[in-house]
Amino acid sequence: MFTIKNLKIKGFRGYMDEKEFAFNKPITILSGENHCGKSSTLNAIEWCLFGNECIGKNTGIRERIDWEIPNRNLGSRSDVFVELELEDENKNICKIKRKWTSSRKDELSISSGHEQFQGNEAEGKVARLLKLSFQDFLTTVYQHQEAVRAVLTQEPRDRNEAIDRLLGLSAYRNILTGIEAAKISSKQNEMDNTFDEFRNKINTILETRNKDLSNMKIQAGQKGLKEEQLNEKGVLNIANIAKKQLEKFASESGLGLAELGVPNQWKDMFLFQKGAEDEIRRLRSEMPDVKKQKELFDSRSKFTQLKIEYDSKKNNLKSAEKELEDLSMEKGKEDDLNNSKSQIEKQISEKEKEMSEANAKAATISKALEYLQLEGVNKNTCPVCGKETADLLMHLKKEWEDKYEKQVGKIQDEINKLKSDLKNTESLLNRYRELKEKKEYINKALNDANKKISELLGRAITERDDSSVLIIGQVNQIDEELKKLEQSVKSKQEILDKIGVLLEQIRIVIEILTHEEKKKIVEQIKQSDEYKQIEKIKDTMALLTNNLDKIKDAINAASNEEAKGKIVSTGNTIDNFFCKITNNPMVNKVNISVSTDTRGRNNYEFKDQNDKEITPILSQGDLNALALSIFLGMAYLMGADQSCGFIMLDDPSQSLGSGHKGKLVEVINEVLNNRMVILSTMDKELQDFIISRITKNKTQYIFDNWTPAHGPEIRIG
Amino acid sequence: MKTETYEQLKKIYDKFGAQEFGKLCQQLLALTLDSANFNVREVRLVEGVDIDAVSKQGNKEKYAIEVKTTVNKTISFGTKDRDGLLKRKEDSYQPVLAVLRLDRFSDWTFANADSIKPGSVNIDGLRVYRLTEIEERISLFFDKTVSDYYAGIMRDGQECLNVILRKKGVKVRQS
């Protein structure tokens, strides 16, 4: 057990300048008006021991939300600290210093003898020294008003928890809270749900596969398969039948067959099925009848083609001959045209000669006219003969116009007409030539076609033969042969078709068996090592949950038993303190009892001498007195069990009347036998009672003149 | 259980509904116990503990079995069920809760009912109290039992199994 020996505070909440307190008397009173730093002093002790645990919603204290550590008026916040000096029963001193660094961080150091620790190591050391959680500290060491009220006025669950802590049963509570925080049951549920999701997925897969399988089996039925064939034995039988039929067919057709081994197991059946399909395709194309059929089709096609060619050429020839005949009928025979051409040529020659003569004379006159029209020439003298003729120029002009110009024009017209006739005649003769050439060409082609026909028919074709009819005869022969072959080929194709159906059945059975195997793989998940592993984990989880339930039951039972024991030992003291403080005529006796709630936790009840619940009839002051009685009763009797040898009372006289206060001081005087007390109050009356009635040595620190620049002024009273 | 067994049980469940399915499973379990070398003394289809069976091997352990079937993860284990089972201890019967969840991956769970608290019981929570030896003996025969009697059940329901149980010398109590 340790007590506080000394305290230094700087920059913490209401403090600015560094202040130091000595706690060397059984009771230390911090007195002064509101806002002078009294509560900051108690808070400083708390913060030094628990750091940021004192701040925030988790403390259960409303005012601790957004609680500020450094004083707002502090210029530099680098020097905010609280230092505590603790002393144990062997007079060993331990110094704990917590320095604020930021709203989320602080630095803790602890020195004890020659040992010094920092940071996490220091936190651990302090925790081991205190042996108290922050919640325990709030209910068993630091009588914070709000924590005290929780004892009586809050929800039963919180009240019971607060009383558990007051009774020093927090270790049980903490273990139970730890177990609950681990949420093993919810983890187990989570695991179960995940596993169920997995199982649902598998179910969906299997249901889908079942549907597919069912459809496949319907399809198999439609293909003539029976239920009993839808297995390995069935598919092997079908394969053997298919193989035998193929062999028989090949043998009967005089064809070879590739090696087709029927496998021993269905999984290899795929190769057989594919191989057999290839063989069927090959046999279909290599069957002798089919080959013959093909040859005949080819031959028929060639004859038909030749006939078309031959007929076309023959028609062309006819058409050429007709054209020649038409030409002859219409334009005359070729010889006549040749004669006509010679005559026209002769006429042209004669006319040209006539033209030439006329032209010579005309040229002379033309030149004479040109000469006579020159200037300075005698217009009446003939330039050829020199003969003088009156109006010679005019005379010559008239003669030129009347005689030569008309004559030459006429001859020229005649020549032009003859030339045109010649051109027409020549054109007709050319047409004759073209048609004759064409006829010759067609004749040659026809001869070529006949040669081809002759070759195909294998016989000579004379001019007396009608190749076209010969071809028709040959095609008819082929058609007859084809007709005969068709029936034979059809029956063989039908045999192969039937074998094809067997192969299709094999394919379907393979598909069904593959599907069933896949389904089996999913079904066998349960036999897998992984599944067994999950089962084992689930067993372990179930065992853990069950064991934890048992542990919780055991802890609750132990806690309940200890609570009962403590109530038996402290009940009278609490009753005594309560009756002493309140002097309530309605309550002569407070009986505290403990039972268990539905969760197995401790459930406390406070009843009067008539076994009636007292909390409904107690005034605010009485309730406060009852809370103080429990707190002080435990402090008085259980002091030896606590690591903290001090208690801190913050404004304990709230709602208490004058009489209550005097009695409270008497109770505190008793508690001082076991614990050091640090009491903060603004209540002058209470201070007076303490000073006048507490029989132990006391130190009084008076807080006043608080200024923003320096914080509180503190003097010893 | 095998997938085929699950599928057959599912069809039985779909045809007869949850309540009748429970009774049929009780009878199927009794027949399975018979195959698994138990002497099935009595099957109660009306009230009381569902099955009394005595192992013909080992310590000849006597079991009073309350049968529960469900499609969910929990079963309802009533105080009456629990008290009925515990009362059988007076006749040296070990109280057993036998649970079958109709699920592709489930098997019969046999749990020592001594410590099971009444209420809604999570089937996975019974793992702690499992009697694995009986479970293993049952699992060897249950699939075959269902397969053997499936057609008869689908045709005649409970009556088919009652006839067979009686033929095997099992006392069947029914309304």
CATH architecture of one domain in chain A: 3-Layer(aba) Sandwich
**Largest interface in this structure:** A-B, 18 and 13 residues
User: How many helices of chain B in DSSP terms?
Assistant: 4
Average the pLDDT over all residues of chain A and give the rounded result: 89
Q: What is the assembly state of the chains in this entry?
A: heterodimer
Q: Can you identify the CATH superfamily of one domain in chain A?
A: P-loop containing nucleotide triphosphate hydrolases
How are helices and strands ordered from N to C of chain B?
Answer: HEEEEHEEEHHE
Helix content of chain B: 40-55%
Q: Return the structural class of chain B.
A: alpha/beta
Walk me through the structure.
The complex is a heterodimer of chains A (717) and B (175). With 717 residues, chain A is of the alpha/beta class. Among the domains of chain A are: 1-131 and 643-717, Rossmann fold; 332-459, Helix Hairpins (Orthogonal Bundle), CATH 1.10.287. Chain A has 17 helices and 14 strands. A six-stranded antiparallel β-sheet of chain A has the order 2-1-4-5-6-7, covered by helices on one side. The longest helix of chain A is centred in the middle third of the chain and has 66 residues, at 392-457. The mean pLDDT of chain A is 89. With 175 residues, chain B is α/β, with parallel strands linked by helices. Chain B has one domain (3-170): 3-Layer(aba) Sandwich (Trna Endonuclease, Chain: A, domain 1). A six-stranded mixed β-sheet of chain B has the order 6-5-3-2-1-8. In chain B, strands 4-7 form a two-stranded antiparallel sheet. In chain B, helix 1 (3-35) packs across helix 3 and helix 3 (132-156) crosses helix 4. The longest helix of chain B is centred in the first third of the chain and has 33 residues, at 3-35. The chains are: A alpha/beta (717), B alpha/beta (175). Chain A binds chain B through residues 188, 192, 196, 199, 202-203, 206, 210, 519, 523, 526, 538-539, 541-543, 545-546, and chain B through 2-3, 7, 73, 103-105, 122, 124-128.
